[in-house]
Amino acid sequence: MTPAAHDADHLTRIAAPEGVSPGTGYSHVVWGTGRFVAVSGQCAFDEKGAVVGEGDPAAQARQVFENLRRCLAAAGAGFEDVVKLTYFVTDVAHLPAVRAARDEVIAADRLPASSAVQVAALFRPELLLEVEAFAVVPPTA
């Protein structure tokens, strides 16, 4: 199996393995070499623990990706190192807002593997989404 795209760095992404329909907005397979980083699901909390954007999926998504950025940075990683994102949304209608926030921080040619799940609720009723991330940091980082 030949990768559809090989990054000039430590990650390889395959948007559509042979015999698998191409995904829209994600890579089916991502692998790499380096240090594995797992980031817990992030919600739309500011640094004081207050919910940002109550009732507004776009505002919540932007805050979630800012929190992910900060968590990744704490591990010496960035969005370019992300190999997998998992989205938990209370309504699939929020996915366009989540994708828009993601597209602000992740280049279209560096999309990670992804899963999206609609859930009945998150742990607080004003939260509309949660996103977790897995990253692989280059061995030299």
Short overview:
The protein is 21% helix and 29% strand. It has helices spanning 57-74, 95-105, and strands at residues 5-6, 11-14, 29-32, 35-42, 82-89, 113-118, 129-137.
Description:
The protein is α+β, with helices and mostly antiparallel strands. Helix content is 21%, strand content 29%. It has 2 helices and 7 strands. It has helices at 57-74, 95-105; strands at residues 5-6, 11-14, 29-32, 35-42, 82-89, 113-118, 129-137. The strands form 2 sheets. The chain has a 4-stranded mixed beta sheet with strand order 4-7-5-6. The protein has a 3-stranded antiparallel beta sheet with strand order 1-2-3, with no helix packed on it. The radius of gyration is 15 Å and the shape is globular. It starts with a strand and ends with a strand. 30% of the residues are buried. Mean pLDDT is 92; it is low at 1-8.
Largest sheet: 4 strands, mixed
- The Cα radius of gyration reads 15 Å
Helix content: 10-25%
Quick check: average pLDDT? 92
Q: What's the order of the H and E elements? A: EEEEHEHEE
Number of helices: 2
Q: Kindly report how far apart the N and C termini lie.
A: 29 Å
Low-confidence region ranges: 1-8
| Spatial sequence of strands, sheet with the most strands | 4-7-5-6
**Count the strands?**
7
Topology (SSEs and partners):
Elements: E1 5-6, E2 11-14, E3 29-32, E4 35-42, H1 57-74, E5 82-89, H2 95-105, E6 113-118, E7 129-137
Parallel strand pairs: 5-6
Antiparallel strand pairs: 1-2, 2-3, 4-7, 5-7
Helix pairs in contact: 1-2
